[in-house]
Amino acid sequence: MLSWACKWRNFKRHNFAAEFLGCRHFEKLPKSKRYCRETIGSSILCSQNDPNLLSSLKLNDARIIYSVAAAMGHNQESHPESHLRVPAIVSALDRMELSAKFRGTEIIELDHFKPASVDDVASVHSKNYVAGLQKAMDQASQQGLIYIERTGPTYATASTYQESLVAAGAGLALVDSVVAAAESSHNPPVGFALIRPPGHHAIPKGPMGFCVFGNVAVAARHVQRVHGLKRVFIIDFDVHHGNGTNDAFYDDPDIFFLSTHQDGSYPGTGRVVEVGHGDGEGTTLNLPLPGGSGDIAMRTVFDEVIVPCAQRFKPDIILVSAGYDAHVLDPLASLQFTTGTYYSLAANIKQLAKDLCKGRCVFFLEGGYNLESLSHSVADSFRAFLGETSLAREFDNPAVLYEEPLTKVKQAIDKVKTIHSL
Ligand SMILES: [Zn+2]
């Protein structure tokens, strides 16, 4: 049997969009520095010794805490999952004065965090995969770029292994900070990991769909293992099904995975009948939405599916796979979310976390390939967390929208409500 590392192939030129889109039923619609993670109770250790580390007081004053891991070495020319994505968001946040340097105590950047350890990542992925990826770095160093076939083409460069550990670590450090802040504040900051490579397609045995390690899944296990918070509710609003997260927790009754995605989009999984297995039956909810679904659809889904589901589950923390590729301007899919949709989602999820789990909530960047709509939507999510007015009207152009297929949307929602007794 071939070892995992042997499956890596030399890079050859590839039509990524075509492969990512080349799935069942697809139809293009018309018109269109190191951080100390050790915590005891509510205080973060080491903060008195290092001025760069956060005191719990500073944490409690903040409304948003974010971390940045741009993975600048993990890049392939013309690939949509590019190293320009995170810098585009960061520069939009700066331009709109929504970053740490402009907002003092309200918004803080966690810039000292350590990479995830092999054990962290191996809580979700097989050790064989993790070791195989590390080994494959020698091959990538020699050849510049390698990729694995049949994975919705996922590439690797010489720095992919290390940068993927940094991305996962950036998420874990945020979880630690938010959990610590919630011990002493009723209104802890929302965490936002501005990281890549993304994670929700990566399966336990390997990479997939531009994703290397399942950042949100690794964080969910960390929450349980390190903080003793048992029940984790994961909301995945990326336009694609988060199959990796789905698979990691398919039989786990303590981790609820709820994914909305475009029906028929990559990778073709996430049918409404996929509800979990064994003890985990009922704690996976997949809601495929018809192409063209937009703001009305998602607001209805939030009220009629996400809220009752989360209320019934009673989570200790909410983690979010925040993909911005359901935006109407995104090149990889055909939903019609707008900047305003993402503002509402951010505001509503923050409120849900406040109502159900002491405000513990961390967002993880997943997809989003139009740099402008991606960065504007993340910026408006920040405004929602701050309780500031949305600027969606400045960014959204109603002329590019067409009528949502609301009859089909209602059918999809009714079906999932019946299956899950909502
Ligand atoms: Zn996606």
TrEMBL record:
Pfam families: Hist_deacetyl (PF00850). SUPFAM superfamilies: Arginase/deacetylase (SSF52768). InterPro entries: HDACs, His_deacetylse_dom, His_deacetylse_dom_sf, Ureohydrolase_dom_sf. One of its GO terms (biological process) is epigenetic regulation of gene expression. One of its GO terms (cellular component) is cytoplasm. Its cofactor is Zn(2+). Residues 79-383 form the Histone deacetylase domain. One of its GO terms (molecular function) is histone deacetylase activity. Keywords: Chromatin regulator, Repressor. CDD domains: HDAC_classII. Gene3D superfamilies: Histone deacetylase domain. This is Histone deacetylase domain-containing protein. It comes from Erythroxylum novogranatense. The lineage of its organism: Eukaryota, Viridiplantae, Streptophyta, Embryophyta, Tracheophyta.
